[in-house]
Amino acid sequence: MKAIDLMIFDLDGTLVTSGNDIAMSVNYTLETLGLPVVEYRIILQFIGDGVRKLIERSLGPASQDRFDEAIALFSAHYHDHMLDTTALYPGVSEVLQYFQNKKKVLLTNKRYHFARDISDGLDIANFFDEIMGADSTFYMKPDARLIYPLLKRFSVHPEQTVMIGDGVNDVLLAKNAGVLSCSFLNGLTDRHVLLKLKPDFSYENLLELTKLFC
Predict the structure, then answer these.
(1) How far is CA 78 from CA 1, 42, 51, 150, in A?
(2) Cα(43)–Cα(181) distance, rounded to whole angstroms?
(3) Which of 38, 189, 203, 214 could, after both became Cys, cross-link 208 (CB 3.0–4.6 A)?
(4) Is residue 170 a contact partner of residue 10, using CB atoms and an 8 Å limit?
(5) Which domains are delineated in the chain?
(6) pLDDT for residue 102
(7) CA 123 – CA 126 distance, rounded (Å)
(8) In this predicted model, what pLDDT tens digit does every residue of 86-109 receive, in sequence order?
């Protein structure tokens, strides 16, 4: 087991099963604009770089002139439907409770108010010392400048800090900042893509974290 002082968690695809609600809001947006909808599996590949990239990718090259309208439609719809089917992955509450004495940060490229509403709605916000969203910092994953202030604030060393997530950006962020990476292989990103990045740790079920870290 690896001794850890600071645990940094991603949100979408790591703690919560939010892909369906995101996809529904994307396709609502496209339908409202009179544009072709996108397959669910394709939309999942668009998630991870923030809402602007999500909408840009979903619109496609030919419809970028509808971007402002699309992001407004998406944001309004997702605000009202972000918890329609989104739920915690199995073991989330138990793991957060198990590590209750560890410093924990929720770090997502999702907008802060969406991340906050979801974590409040699913009753996990109080487990975290800080919640950071794409519009509450100057940087987005995988920029290492997200991590450096946390190391200083919590007085922890990089080798005792782990970034836990299901995305490419989570692994790259950890590598960029010199902290440990831990990949969830059953989230939104294809496991083979993640394993090619050679994360320091990987897991199939969140409860495995209690055997990896202490």
Answers:
(1) 39, 18, 11, 29
(2) 25
(3) 203
(4) yes
(5) 6-17+87-212 (3.40.50.1000), 19-81 (1.10.150)
(6) 97
(7) 7
(8) 999 999 999 999 999 999 999 999
Region of residue 15 (left: phi > 0; alpha: psi -120 to 50; beta: else): alpha
DSSP state for residue 130 in the 8-state scheme: E
End-to-end CA distance of the chain: 6
Which residues, in sequence order, are bridge partners of residue 183? Answer: 165, 202
Any idea what DSSP says for residue 146?
Answer: G
Beta bridge partners of 6: 103, 161
Given CA atoms 21, 22, 27, 29 in this order, what sign does their dihedral have? positive
Q: Is the pLDDT of residue 48 over 90?
A: no
Position 214 scores a pLDDT of 96
Question: Could you tell me which residues are beta bridge partners of residue 213?
Answer: 2
E strand segments, 25-160 = 103-107, 130-132
CA distance 185 to 208: 12
Q: Match 């009753």 to its residue by tokens.
A: 123
Which whole-number Å values give the CA distances from 94 to 32, 61, 182, in the listed order? 40, 43, 18
The residue with tokens 């992001």 is 71
Strands (E), 80-193: 103-107, 130-132, 161-165, 180-184
Q: Which two tokens stand for residue 99?
A: 């590590």
Cβ atoms of 104 and 131 within 8 Å: the answer is no
The pTM of the full predicted model, rounded to 2 decimals, is 0.94
d(CA 122, CA 88): 7
